[in-house]
Design a protein that fits this description.
This protein starts with a strand and ends with a strand. By secondary structure, it is an alpha+beta fold. The longest helix has 16 residues. The chain folds into 2 domains: 114 residues, 2-Layer Sandwich (D-amino Acid Aminotransferase, Chain A, domain 1); 163 residues, D-amino Acid Aminotransferase, subunit A, domain 2 (D-amino Acid Aminotransferase, Chain A, domain 2, Alpha-Beta Barrel). The protein is built from 8 helices and 16 strands. Bound molecules: 4'-deoxy-4'-aminopyridoxal-5'-phosphate. The site of 4'-deoxy-4'-aminopyridoxal-5'-phosphate (PMP) has 14 residues, from helix 6 and strand 13. 4'-deoxy-4'-aminopyridoxal-5'-phosphate binds next to helix 6 and strand 13.
Length: 289
């Protein structure tokens, strides 16, 4: 497997970044997780747009155009002969000294790693996932805005550790006011009385590409009413259905939250329709290569 670093391909074992890179020293950088299905990159431009927005928010100027990065991604997929892949794009502040000052970092590093997709166990999709609410609150938008997909994921990792200790794969994170924000690597949706509800991004969540895709499916294909509004865990406990969305997880049903069983412990009917429509989109759209 070859890895792209600043315009050159290296064998996996030789793909290395300096220990003076501020991405390593301070988590100073941004990234994207993208997928390709059947030799098509799903929602490529949307991911690249978010990458550039994240970079802009941290005042990191990416020394490439969006087209150049897209081209490099496609080249990396081709050189590795991958038809269904997970793609990790990382832009770090680059090599500097041991201080924080980003002005010392003269050139950002661009890394593109592609790999075979590691799927969640099929059982999760068929039987649904159990999640718990954790005590770690999602980052304050006024401190590190969760809209920025930054290389500093400690907030999410703390929550993930709590979930793992409780025997769960995912954690529901609340914002500082106690409203449901998102999970450690996924957005969250509930369905109540045929209305699809998800937290608005302003309360402090990543504007997920899968989240956006699901909102479009719900509105345009399933003709559902969609609301982006704050809610507390009570709304999840009493929801008709619940599911999570993310590039890696796609759309995954949730059947138990903090020991409260949702929909008699079975993936919901609307959730199943959304999964079907989403699958279809992944196989019929995207940038071919
Ligand atoms: N929230 C967080 C914190 C994430 O890391 C991710 C995955 N990147 C998501 C939500 C889902 O976003 P997307 O659908 O764009 O993968």
């Amino acid at each position: 497997m070859k890895v792209y670093i600043n315009g050159t391909f290296y064998e996996k074992e030789e793909a290395k970044i300096s220990v003076f890179d501020h991405g390593f020293l301070y988590g100073d950088g941004v990234f994207e997780g993208i997928r390709s299905y059947n030799r098509r990159v799903f929602k490529l431009r949307e991911h690249i747009n978010r990458l550039f927005n994240s970079a802009k928010a941290i005042m990191l100027e990416i020394p490439y155009t969006k087209e150049e990065i897209e081209k490099a991604i496609i080249e990396t997929l081709k050189i590795n002969n991958l038809s269904d892949a997970y793609i990790r794009v990382v832009v770090s502040r680059g090599v500097g000294d041991l201080g924080l000052d980003p002005r010392k970092c003269k050139a950002p590093s661009l890394v593109i790693i592609t790999d075979k997709i590691v799927l969640y166990p099929q059982e999760f999709y068929e039987k649904g996932l159990e999640v718990i609410t954790v005590s770690t609150r999602r980052n304050l938008p006024s401190a590190i805005d969760p809209a920025i997909k930054s290389l500093n994921y400690l907030n999410n990792i703390f929550a993930k550790i709590e979930a793992i200790r409780a025997g769960c794969e995912e954690a529901v994170m609340l914002n500082k006011d106690g409203y449901v924000a998102e999970c450690t690597g996924d957005n969250i949706f509930i369905i109540k009385n045929n209305i699809l509800i998800t937290p608005p991004t302003y309360i402090g969540v990543l504007p997920g590409i899968t989240r956006e895709t699901v909102i479009e499916i719900a509105k345009n294909k399933l003709k559902l009413l969609v609301k982006e509004e704050p809610f507390t865990v009570y709304s999840i406990y009493t929801a008709d259905e619940c599911f999570l969305t993310g590039t890696a997880a796609e759309v995954i049903p949730v059947v138990k939250v903090d020991n409260r069983i949702i929909n008699n412990g079975l993936p919901g009917e609307i959730t199943k329709q959304i999964i079907k429509e989403f699958k279809e989109l992944t196989l019929t759209t995207g940038v071919p290569y």
